[in-house]
Design a protein that fits this description.
alpha/beta, Rossmann fold, 2 domains, 3-stranded parallel β-sheet, 10 helices, 43% helix, globular
Length: 254
Amino acid sequence: MRVAYWPGCVSRGFTPELHGAMAKIAPLLDLELIELDRASCCGAGVIEEHNQELADTLNARTFALAQQTDGELMMNICSTCQGAQSECQERLDANGEYRDHINANLQDEGLRYEKGLTNKNLLWLLVEGIGLDEVRSRVKRPLSGLRVGPFYGCYIVRPTRRLGIDEDHPRDRYLHVLIEALGGTVIDYAGVYKCCGFPIITMNKQASLEMAGRHLGDAVDAQADCLVTPCPLCHLNLDLQQPLAERVVGRELE
């Protein structure tokens, strides 16, 4: 399967291990990545709150670049990008006049977004496109004995309608079934669907670290060996910030 691949900003900056891991697993899953190296930030929580038209223009540009490839769909590895881009795409696809207005901003680059692009997070593609049976058959070293806590984050599970979560597509359970397919044991705990705190870290660092520390503590109390998340920003707040979160909540989180 050929996919127009958008890694997002964070996986090429603060968390390069994610971008590198994607490059490693793609050939093992028969995924051919057409990297959108000209694409830009989705603007989530940074641009869209100050200038929605600019954020929509940036995302429409990314969509148009994806449509210029011969990929079957566009794939991302950042659930924050998925949420922000899904919101933008909903606006663009629902309003032809607004879409034309945004496309006018892209004229100088010779780009135009046509409604109907399929944009999926890697998690969704693994379950819906490649399939759990196929994923399971490719496993070389099962996660046997590893107790794994899923952490979805905000942007890939809310709002459910926009993100296509329904009985036929229970995307809010995909981390659970993927962990099981890889041989791990799923550990449920209070923070599975909670916000990691990253969106407010520059405005209220104390509250952000309290949130991260609480979720990590709940996972530790549930005897999870690790957490797994489809969101690089959650990864940052729950991993990189652990030492600071420990101080804030007053307990060890290892």
